[in-house]
Amino acid sequence: MTVSAPTPAAAVPESLLDRAARGERLDAAEIEALYHLPLPEVAAVAHGLRLARRDPEQVSFLIDRNINYTNICNVGCNFCAFYRTRRQADSYVLDYEHISQKIRELEAVGGTRILLQGGVNPELPLEYYTGLLRHVKTHHPTIRIDAFSPEEVLFMEKAFGMSLDELLDTLIAAGLDGLPGAGGEILEDDVRAKAAPARIRSADWFRIIDAAQRKGLYTISTMVIGFGETYAQRARHLLKIREQQDRANALYGGNGFSGFAMWTLQTEHTRLHGKAPGATAHEYLQQLAVARIALDNVPNIQASWPAQGFKVAQASLYYGANDLGSTMLEENVVSAAGGHQRVQAQVRELVRIAVDAGFTPVIRNSRFEIIERPDVAALLGRDAANPEAERAVGAGA
Ligand code: SF4
């Protein structure tokens, strides 16, 4: 009897998700392919990467306040329900004392950062901005100021006839700590041109962010889905953020984006209402998981409770997110377009979201450094020895 040699088993090609789970870098086509895979499998890989890249026990958040110093804006984005023209009765510019009052309220609840942003108001002189930064630094020295989106910076460059370097140096000298990466939306110009013809284009957004990172400012990357953009456009958006992060890591001593924040388009009271598809909770969670996999060099991925509500934000902690954003003592822009009813969160509420999902909540600053470990038993009214014995959640301020 002749015995034939065993046929070698055909090698099983390694799947895209296996490679992603090993932390291998994916290209644009591979990132796009993730959107077509079953979400539970993509989420499992994203969560595994989150556990490996950040403290697996902890979920962080920040105590802060958004202060919108003016709602007058001449950009007129189709998706914005916040802006007003100068002649509208409810248009405003906040004076410094009004802003101080808001900051005192933030200080009273232990806040450490303000996000200071507004419309593009052609009537404000450079001295308004520099005076405001100096006022905040003088009267509220413990508060970090992350201010002026790339759109506002672009306006200042043109209006005040300054080079970008000169302008940023002036703002930094007056007290600027960081430049929020608002206005990222989808960083593909054909999407931007339809949603907001006069909106800052992607090249300018990256030019301004790059200069801010070079100068040591805090920055964060952002994304908004639901304009009707394709998966390929979403994948390219993520890739551009990853490339900028590589650049900042190589050239600016690692001062790249400290995190990635993503939310879904809200269109109530805007010209896009009924014209843009928006995005469901499933799409939101899918995008979050894809972002965690694609952005292998961005450490922190935030969940968005203002757009998605607390319950989806909590689920996000198993789709790649390691951070709950901030308490946001005040938010006016997303909520004007129909955000998820809630415009602020109590510390206790974010603590409960983290604890009930199985994590330890920690309070951070805007650079994602831990500054406090909240007393869970005291905040939730639970007996530390018997965490199931909840006594007073929902009671009190
Ligand atoms: S999103 Fe910003 S730039 Fe656009 S209209 Fe609203 S306030 Fe102006």
Task: Outline the structure in words.
This protein has helices spanning 16-21, 28-34, 39-53, 96-108, 126-139, 150-159, 164-174, 189-195, 202-214, 231-251, 281-294, 305-316, 333-336, 347-356, 376-380; strands spanning 58-62, 64-68, 113-117, 144-147, 178-179, 218-219, 221-225, 259-264, 300-302, 323-326, 360-364, 370-372, 382-383, 386-390. The chain has 397 residues and is α/β, with parallel strands linked by helices. It has a single domain (26-389), classed as Alpha-Beta Barrel (TIM Barrel), CATH 3.20.20. It has a 4-stranded mixed beta sheet. Helix 2 (28-34) packs across helix 10. The chain is globular. Bound molecules: iron/sulfur cluster (SF4).
What's the short story on this structure?
Helix content is 41%, strand content 14%. With 397 residues, it is α/β, with parallel strands linked by helices. Helix 2 packs across helix 10.
How are the strands of the biggest sheet laid out side by side? 10-1-11-12
Radius of gyration: 22 Å
Strand content: 5-15%
Main β-sheet description = 4 strands, mixed
What series of H and E elements makes up the topology? HHHEEHEHEHHEHHEEHEHEHEHHEEHEE
Write out the distinct hetero groups bound to the structure. iron/sulfur cluster
Low-confidence stretches: 390-397
Pfam families: CofH_C, Radical_SAM
Protein name: Cyclic dehypoxanthine futalosine synthase
Pathway: Quinol/quinone metabolism; menaquinone biosynthesis
Function: Radical SAM enzyme that catalyzes the cyclization of dehypoxanthine futalosine (DHFL) into cyclic dehypoxanthine futalosine (CDHFL), a step in the biosynthesis of menaquinone (MK, vitamin K2).
